[in-house]
TrEMBL record:
This is UPF0316 protein ACFQIC_20140. It comes from the Bacteria. InterPro entries: DUF2179, DUF5698, UPF0316. It is a multi-pass membrane protein. It comes from Halobacillus seohaensis. HAMAP family: UPF0316. Belongs to the UPF0316 family. It is found in: Cell membrane. The chain crosses the membrane at residues 6-26, 33-52, 58-78.
């Protein structure tokens, strides 16, 4: 019985690690993916050796499968909490909502405004790039100022230049300067 419980818990640990490794690879974070991948392999080999050692019990196989399923669920929760990466939003508006645009910019979102021709009238599109961790706040702001907005979001794989990249570089330089001051002391 102890082996069956251990197999179950190993799977609950293994699959979220597998999820994170996959996310890091997709986000082009090779160093993190390599580290997590080595940990994943260690846990996997330990779990499989337990399943394959001794007698092949149905309980061990069921525990392995259930742990895998629960691990997928937990991996999704962990990935959502970490919110690694960025999301691009295209927000389509029926009117040029200056209050929304100003509020978004005051909150630190980079906003680009486009005017376009819709079927019945002129339309406006906001293009916004944000960290995934800031998505919920962005969505609340849009809903508050423009409840009828049509929103499309996607995860960009690469980007270069622009407002957000300049802000990220400034933050990175400030962190480096703080580290240098700490090491000087």
């Amino acid at each position: 019985m102890w082996d069956i419980m251990l197999i179950f818990f190993i799977q609950i640990v293994f699959v979220p690690i597998l999820t994170l490794r996959t996310v890091f690879m997709v986000k082009n974070q090779k160093e993190r993916a390599s580290f997590v991948g080595a940990l994943e392999a260690l846990v996997y080999i330990f779990g499989v050796s337990l399943v394959l050692s001794g007698e092949q019990s149905i309980g061990a196989m069921v525990a392995y499968s259930l742990g895998f399923g629960i691990g997928i669920y937990l991996g999704g929760i962990i990935e959502n909490k970490l919110a690694i990466g960025y999301t691009a939003y295209n927000v389509n508006l029926q009117s040029k909502n200056e209050a929304l645009i100003e509020k978004l910019r005051m909150e630190g979102y980079g906003v680009t405004l486009y005017a376009g021709e819709g079927r019945d009238s002129e339309r406006y599109k906001l293009e916004i790039l944000t960290k995934r961790s800031r998505e919920p706040k962005l969505e609340v702001l849009i809903e508050e100022y423009e409840p009828k907005a049509f929103i499309i979001s996607y995860e960009p794989r690469k980007f270069k230049g622009g407002f957000l990249v300049k802000a990220m570089k400034r933050r990175l330089n400030l962190k480096r300067q703080k580290k240098e001051k700490v090491t000087e002391v």
